């Protein structure tokens, strides 16, 4: 048996008002179908399911909108694979079964009663077996905006330490907020856009209070359309542009092949990764030339420091980008 339901409800008696929640639910007893469902749900591939002593069956349900959703999973088998947190920050807890997150790296065991935040900003491997799992997912950009408001700072990249266990009181407060939010998100009564948005905001604040994290300031705006691994790659380029990294290093950092990185960049932002990295370094050269003077700075020394060994090609690329030669910037 395999059932799928995907609905967007209209509030009774108010045909012009649409409930913002989307519901998706599927269940069955086919192992291959289950693999396809979970690969699609987590935008991944290569999951490997394997039967255990339990009679196999699965159920997956998600309710929410693009900002926040609640997911529940029953999976009576073993599953291993690799996923990327992408543009979501997720908190999970299990009531039965268990597993390991971030296999082979900063491993974290899943055990009943302990909420954990998924690794962020990079791909990670997992192993799960015979689980009853719940997940709260929040849009990463939304969460970063709430963090900026709460801390009085500019929006930056949130980096969570998934291995750090939250305190007892923090977990108690988190559980309370999840219960309150679930009444809204999972309830049968119609929900307005404003009510769902307020619930998402309260849940975001509870997540920030509960799970240890830091904020990495962004040096420059991200290219329009950059999400998931492309976003992580761009941020890594900015953070490490002063080191001799290549697109091979960038691809490895975000868990892609070089070809996969190139295809993702072209698809999302229409720029090759090596061109973006070169542009970042040209921008850094320009900043140094503007800050320097002809008496203490030379174009050649700055260019070489930022990885431009062939000064003729560097000068031409600089002129194409800034419509002036580097010597003009230095003397300007």
Give the number of helices: 11
Helix content: 40-55%
End-to-end Cα distance = 73 Å
Identify the CATH architecture of the largest domain. Sandwich
Structure, described:
By secondary structure, the protein is an alpha+beta fold. It folds into 2 domains: 3-210, Jelly Rolls (Sandwich); 228-331, Arc Repressor Mutant, subunit A (Orthogonal Bundle), CATH 1.10.10.60. Helix content is 40%, strand content 28%. It is built from 11 helices and 11 strands. The chain has helices spanning 31-41, 140-151, 168-185, 193-210, 228-240, 247-253, 258-268, 273-291, 299-305, 311-322, 326-331, and strands spanning 3-10, 18-28, 48-50, 58-64, 68-84, 88-101, 108-110, 116-117, 123-139, 156-160, 213-217. Strands 1, 2, 3, 4, 5, 6, 7, 8 and 9 form a 9-stranded antiparallel β-sheet that branches. Strands 10-11 form a two-stranded antiparallel sheet. Strand 1 (3-10) and strand 2 form a beta hairpin. The model is unreliable at 1-16 (pLDDT under 50).
Please render the helix and strand layout as text:
Blueprint: E1 3-10, E2 18-28, H1 31-41, E3 48-50, E4 58-64, E5 68-84, E6 88-101, E7 108-110, E8 116-117, E9 123-139, H2 140-151, E10 156-160, H3 168-185, H4 193-210, E11 213-217, H5 228-240, H6 247-253, H7 258-268, H8 273-291, H9 299-305, H10 311-322, H11 326-331
Antiparallel strand pairs: 1-2, 2-4, 3-5, 4-5, 5-9, 6-7, 6-8, 6-9, 10-11
Helix pairs in contact: 2-4, 3-4
């Amino acid at each position: 048996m395999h059932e799928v339901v995907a609905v967007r409800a209209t509030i009774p008696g108010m045909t012009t008002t649409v409930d913002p929640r989307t519901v998706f639910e599927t269940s069955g007893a086919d192992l291959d179908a289950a693999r396809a469902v979970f690969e699609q749900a987590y935008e991944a591939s290569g999951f490997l399911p394997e039967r255990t002593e339990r009679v196999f069956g699965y159920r997956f349900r998600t309710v929410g909108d693009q900002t926040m959703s609640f997911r529940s999973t029953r999976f009576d088998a073993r599953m291993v694979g690799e996923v990327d947190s992408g543009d979501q920050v997720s908190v999970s807890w299990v009531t039965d079964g268990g597993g390991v997150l971030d296999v082979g790296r900063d491993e974290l065991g899943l055990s009943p009663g302990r909420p954990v935040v998924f690794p962020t900003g990079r791909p990670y491997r997992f192993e799960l077996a015979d689980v009853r799992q719940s997940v709260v997912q929040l849009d990463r950009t939304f969460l970063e905006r709430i963090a900026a408001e709460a801390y009085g700072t500019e929006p930056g990249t949130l980096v969570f330490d998934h291995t750090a266990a939250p305190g007892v009181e923090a977990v108690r407060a988190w559980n309370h907020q999840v219960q309150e939010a679930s009444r809204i998100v999972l309830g049968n009564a119609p929900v307005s856009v404003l009510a769902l948005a307020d619930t998402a905001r309260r849940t975001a604040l509870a997540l920030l209070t509960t799970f240890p994290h830091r904020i990495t300031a962004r040096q420059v705006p991200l290219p329009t359309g950059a999400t998931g691994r492309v976003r992580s790659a761009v941020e890594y380029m900015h953070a490490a542009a002063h080191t001799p990294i290549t697109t091979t290093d960038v691809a490895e950092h975000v868990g892609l092949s070089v070809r996969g990185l190139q295809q993702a960049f072209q698809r999302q932002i229409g720029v090759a990764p090596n061109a973006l990295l070169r542009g970042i370094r040209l921008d850094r050269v320009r900043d140094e030339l503007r800050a320097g003077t002809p008496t203490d700075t030379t174009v050649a020394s700055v260019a070489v420091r930022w990885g431009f060994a062939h000064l003729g090609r560097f000068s031409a690329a600089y002129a194409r980008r800034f419509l002036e030669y580097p010597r003009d910037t230095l003397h300007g």
